[in-house]
Amino acid sequence: MSDMHAVEGVLFDIDDTLVDLETAMGRTLHHIGAETLAHLSVAEWAEYKRLYTRDPHGYYNQYLAGELSFTEQRVRRARHAQASFVTEPLEGESAHRWNTAYEAILPLHFKPYDDVVPLLDALDEAGIPYGAVSNNVHDYQRAKLDKAGLERVAALVGIDAVGVAKPDPAIYLEGARRLGTSPSGTLYVGDNPAIDAEGADAAGLVGIWLDRGLHTGVEEFKGRRITSLAHVLQFLQEIR
């Protein structure tokens, strides 16, 4: 790490980095499926949640590419996840009711991970600016951060800020610009090894993969890896 610049600022991904979206989605799915999916075993519930949250067909990526609306990607994920467990497909009015319930319940479960606030406190104490760069639109993610009690994450770049999504370099660079930091002096921390760590590296930032155990098949990853945001503090101490 001796070739790295002093840390000027830190940017974060939001979903499953700052906010525990995996748990929030799982609890929401269980709440709104309590009647229609009451017959599922514990193992089947786990598989249903896995299919929805991990999105194996890449519907969210289709949303980022402009091929689906935000609601469409969500409903398609739910339809695919439910296909093995119900006979009636999630379509039409039932899909509308499902999405309305999902939108109402999900924000109630937005919580930060336990390692978030201590790190932000330490960054504040050290005078290191921080913010977030997300593959979703600004207003939706702003509301999510606020609901999770993370109003202090003031600098926020969404895909509508520059018209592109990660891993396009422009969105990371816009984050550094808003912090007033140089790309090479800016850490970018996220839960996706490719989009977050490698994407930030390619943009000239210092990418760090926060491995929360949500990604498989990443044995070939050779970059910087941590398993808790608490490790960012050690990282700062090592390279400042």
TrEMBL record:
Q: Does the keyword Magnesium apply?
A: yes
Say yes or no: keyword Magnesium present: yes
What the entry lists under Pfam families is as follows:
Hydrolase
Please provide the record's keywords in A-Z order: Hydrolase, Magnesium
- Membrane-crossing segments per the record: none
Q: Which cofactor does it need?
A: Mg(2+)
Reading the lineage from the top rank, the first entry is Bacteria
Q: Which Gene3D superfamilies match?
A: 1.20.120.1600, HAD superfamily/HAD-like
GO function terms (MF aspect) = hydrolase activity
Q: Please give the SUPFAM superfamilies that the UniProt record associates with this protein.
A: HAD-like
Give GO terms for biological process.
small molecule metabolic process
Q: NCBIfam families recorded for this chain?
A: HAD-SF-IA-v1 (TIGR01549), HAD-SF-IA-v3 (TIGR01509)
This one is known as Putative hydrolase of the HAD superfamily
